[in-house]
Amino acid sequence: MTHRFPIKEIALQAGLSTATVDRVLNRRPNVSPQTHRRVHDAIEELGRQEGQLAAKGRRLFIDVVMEAPARFSREVQLASEDVQKQLAPAALRTRFSIAETMTSATCAATLDRIRKRGSHGVCLKARDTPELRSAISRLTDKRIPVVTMFTDITGSQKLAYAGLSNQNAGKTAAYLMLKQLGPADRVVLTILSQLAFQGEEERYDGFRSELGRSRPDIEVIDASGGGGLNTATERAVAAKIRSIPEIAGVYSMGGGNQAVLKVLESAGKTPSVFVAHDLDEDNLELLRQEKLTFVLHHDLRSDLRTAFRHIMAFHGLGAAPITSLSDIQIVTPVNIPMAFK
């Protein structure tokens, strides 16, 4: 494996020991394929960041830990690369620990490994559980700040939250849906990826409260728990709608919308309004096909910039952002932003 970086630099980027990196680089036995991949990815990332690291300023290693569908994680990684170039005087290096599904125990163990090897900060998208609150406390005790992103972890010792006001996002979804529904419409479907994601729970609470205030006659059927993954979401939705004759609207908070539409089409149900979140590649295609009515979008680059600036300010590099909340953009099939065309 050709490279031009010191083993210590590769080890820091990969989050591995120098001895492990040495075994990989010298093709010694008893090294897993996953470890080979981590070292290879670290060398590629160091190459991409080499130009940035030539800039003057302090270097910060920031760990990004996320439980999220791959389509969303890819968008976050691309956004991170863009934002890092903008944040002089610091030269930021990001190390990603990502899985489509990650139990609280697995995520806590990942955070503990980061605590032991060291980090300048952690950006975290994870479930709101006591186990993770404890892991955040342990990081904080080691002066490793944690910024929760996209979904918060309440009652934790995090430094800050960066993302939407999820309560307002849910209310916005209800407002848009009510403008499309008729007086005879009685049933809407809601879908969360994981009940333990606090941000999605806030969206759901905001949606229910706004819908109940204006149309208490509408029944909300919830089909959550698919993790935003198509196969699991398809099963969850199919089980819920089997005995429901009509569904007037859908509010999907966690993705898997191709699967949702597939199930509805198979069941002969055509909602008059479908509200989703995020301009990932799946939702963009569904918008272009006019299968989604509205997508509530927020700029991932803005969220990451906010999160990184909080960590920089913790280390004395600039001021913390005045606000950590990002704006909601309502996207329809006819106003898709130019950056996504």
UniProtKB/TrEMBL annotation:
Kindly name one Pfam family recorded for this protein: Peripla_BP_4
* InterPro entries linked to this entry: HTH_LacI, Lambda_DNA-bd_dom_sf, Peripla_BP_I, SBP_2_dom
Gene3D superfamilies in the cross-refs? 3.40.50.2300, lambda repressor-like DNA-binding domains (1.10.260.40)
Question: Which residue ranges does the record assign to the HTH lacI-type domain?
Answer: 7-59
Please indicate which superkingdom the organism of origin belongs to: Bacteria
- Gene Ontology molecular function: DNA binding
- Which UniProt keywords are present, listed alphabetically? DNA-binding, Transcription, Transcription regulation
Q: What is this protein called?
A: LacI family DNA-binding transcriptional regulator
